[in-house]
């Protein structure tokens, strides 16, 4: 027997332990107090230093943000002063021109000259200087990417009722383009009949302010090396050591996304961010605290930071002092522990000798008490301590007897409980790896119909034999898995009673293990849960019912058309029932000869029956089935339970074992049939499935009704749209004097587009009415829209098309209602040919009945020709006068300014007068060259009119002439730095019967036109010889393009494309270049034409024949 520790030894260890623990606790507390004081002092130093650095960086950032606000305010005030200065300059210039010009000029000419002078003084290319009526627009800077014509229209509309004042205007720009907000100052000078609008793009003005702000912020320094940093909310660095780099994903050693945290703090109005500074471009890699604030409206943040670990040197010195003090105190503690250990050894030795005597006496008494069968006689004991031990022993014996009696009673109660429990109680033992049932009690006979002894070891049947065959395998797996992984198991399974009834049982058991951890026994209980399983099945069926209907409802709202909707619903129904095939037939009518398979969805294992969309003959069998389905208010089931048999040829053809059919009765058209096929086995359709199928069919019928109505409505709308688009009859609807519907035929009649007609404002259609018919047609339309019955329903009138042609139309109108209001439905027929036929007939009759009338008609035509020639002469003189007056007015105006500047210079009043005079002389030289060019074009036009065929007898090379024209044009276009001119003549060009001078002049006309109307981009000249004889030349530009209706008119003399506004940068010439070009090309035996899409440039083509 192993000898244990003695009491004296335990006493020694206890005293030593107590003394040592006391010393260690006191010493540890002593050392801890020193360490705590050190930590407190270090934290206080860090906090003071941290707070000082935070206050410093916050104050610097607030000062920087205040500086930004001050710079922005100063820039805004300077911009306002600049706009007011432009208005004053315009007024002064107009006064000079009106007062000092020798002849009284036209007001329009003065305004135009004023705009040109202001444009000449503004050296910026990004501007919008324009004249529109009595309004002058001076907007600089102005974005290049915004169409000036569209911007001018928006400004004119926004300031239509403004005479004076200041406002902001946000321009509407194409999707994806940068926005633009204009600051506008409006002043109206009544004495001149002139309104001046000065403005500037706030975005472009802001860009210059941003550059100035960044320059000022980068110069700020504080403390020793403190500086500011900043960037955009997108992560780009604008200020600091890594300016221009994307810092969005920069992280420190702790995973902090530095810039993202800074941006978040700035967006919240400002805040501190702590992080470890990465070593960017030599930066110090240490812990840093930064403060950032936002710059409103710019999506910028500005901040600065300070390193917070400078205080660590002081703290490290104090830490070394603390370590030395701790070493001294540890030595003192060890010395005290050694002294106390010697004292404890002495005291324990004395105590052990006293305890040995007492223990010997205790052992003798305890031996006497434990050897007897009865209770110990307490009176026979002498010492009081042993008497207490004897009483305790007697009490233990009494308790043992009571426990034995209680155990016997518990066994009796357990037997009674088992016999009355509504279940089966069992006990199994593991004997050599086989589970043997040792006890089976409870309601065995009521639950299984078998005698309990059948399941006890040695009985005629095992309990496993009554488990349902489909459940035996997985119940065995549950036993094996649960017993190996845990101490309890649970299994729900079915049994087959002796009478054949199937019941659900729930078994719960617990496994007990022996000392080696092996399975020793199982105690468990089995309950009948058939009622619970039936309730669960009804609950799950109801949930399945609701979920299926919900899927059908969702499918009704999916799909772009009826077929897709039906397919989604049918797939949901087939999936819900687990059917092998789902189908829709239409029509379900026994009177029809055929029906169509409108939809068929099958499982991949079973091919489609007839194929979707196929037409099937209505035989006798089908009529009987359809009649039965139509007569039944509920679905018809063909399965073993109903007795309805599927015809043999149907079963063999489609592989059907059972089917379910239901008649759908939508509100539109004839009935449909919804059906399901089950091909795997003869499925019996349950009452719950039939109820679900009935409700699904009703939902499908409702969705089908809505879809069919919408399909008919869509078909009706499509038929009307097709009719309105294909008919030659013009159709339009007029409501409140505005066109709300118009077809293409109407647009063709008035020679415009449907979009332009729909965009007309109220009464805008009146512009197409002939002046002689306008009052009558307008009155009839107004009365018709008001619902007046006393109107003329049909009459003929004349229309003036968009190209200026006059046509005769016959009108039929009828009052109708659109959106609850009266409207006028109008149909138009072009009867111009009929009218012309009538006129021709009348002319023919008049010619044959009277020679005098014929002579009068000839005189009338001659007079009309003279009138036309006179009009052409007047138009020519007017155009020449206007084209020459504008440069002459500029020359005269600049002459007056030069005279004034020279007088000031001679009097010594203005040191910059000579420079401005030289600039004005440059403008006069430019206008003089322009005037000379106009005269040359007039002379050349007259010369070309008089000449005949310009082809030469000899053939000449063409390459050099074209290159010379390109080089000349390149010199002219050089003033526009954003425009490039290129030439592609890589192929071999033949010689043709054309003078090089004429060819050079023609190409020059086209290039001059392209340079005038292309602000930026490129001009490309391509020359090819497709057949090796003649040449094809194309000049393509990236200008604003030419409307389709102008592609032919631009080749007429004096014609210029109408823009609706007078833009200074687009006043180029008299409109003779393209006319001269066509005249020369046609006299050379070729042809010239243009192609363009408005807003995307233009391409001019020349085709000249080969030598011959």
Automatic annotation (TrEMBL):
Membrane topology: Multi-pass membrane protein
Entry's transmembrane regions: 12-32
Subcellular location: Membrane
Source species: Pseudodesulfovibrio indicus
Catalyses which reaction(s): ATP + protein L-histidine = ADP + protein N-phospho-L-histidine
GO-annotated cellular components: membrane
Principal location class: membrane
Domain of life of the native organism: Bacteria
Protein name: histidine kinase
Claim: Transmembrane is one of the keywords in the record: yes
Nucleus listed as a keyword: no
PANTHER family, A to Z: SENSOR HISTIDINE KINASE GLRK, TWO-COMPONENT HISTIDINE KINASE
Taxonomic classification: Bacteria, Pseudomonadati, Thermodesulfobacteriota, Desulfovibrionia, Desulfovibrionales
GO MF, any single term: phosphorelay sensor kinase activity
SMART domains: HATPase_c, HisKA, PAC, PAS
Keyword terms of this UniProt record: ATP-binding, Kinase, Membrane, Nucleotide-binding, Phosphoprotein, Transferase, Transmembrane, Transmembrane helix, Two-component regulatory system
Name of the top EC class for this enzyme: transferase
PROSITE patterns reported in the protein's UniProt record: HIS_KIN (PS50109), PAC (PS50113), PAS (PS50112)
Any GO BP annotation: osmosensory signaling via phosphorelay pathway
Gene3D superfamilies linked: 1.10.287.130, 3.30.450.40, Histidine kinase-like ATPase, C-terminal domain, PAS domain
PAS domain span: 410-486
